[in-house]
């Protein structure tokens, strides 16, 4: 008992007094010891005083990752997204695709500026209609009309795979005859004269059309029209465009009577035909 009391007293004195009784100097106070010790049986004695080990430090929280802290500070739609390793490759591929498309468009635009096809030019150069024989409601005559076809392109050759020319009685909207021409290849900056045979024989026009025809013949003038249909390609070396549909109309072809015979020749101030091109 005396031993226990002395040990307890010594510990209390060591823990509670700040002055050393032996020499009167202030004692060094060690903080961090527990205020109460439940049992001193297993506490080692060092230098006459029981040695109580310091408590283990409390575990410190792990430092937060910068990205996790950023998520806590900012709303969801403002959070930083970690970089994706595939994104640079994707954006680089998109940039190359856009650049390639742009270069291709510029290249084909320059090609179009150099070799883009211009519409063919067509006009009536001359024509002649023989005496028209009328029997009941039928009519017979020979007709020759010359057309001048011009290819205005400097770099393209025009290829006409099919050409159909129709002779029309425009005032009555009546088809008189048709002529079909073989394929035609026209070089660049070239003019070609096309001779057409548009005569008709025993053509049944009907009583009303025959009556109007007789009236025009008695007046000495006869007005006709031409319709031209063709399939045309333009070619420059090995490069060739797709087939395009050409449609032209030549109106107001006036044929007047000659004084010595009953034939009529072409006489018109408007000789140019209206030409259109359509994609097939």
From TrEMBL:
Gene Ontology cellular component terms for the protein in this record: membrane
Primary location: membrane
Region annotation Disordered: where it falls in the sequence: 1-23
Keywords recorded for this protein, A-Z: Membrane, Transmembrane, Transmembrane helix
Residue ranges of coiled coil: none
Bilayer-spanning residue ranges: 89-115
Cellular location(s): Membrane
InterPro entries in alphabetical order: NDR1-like
UniProt-recorded name of the protein: Protein YLS9-like
Organism, as annotated: Forsythia ovata
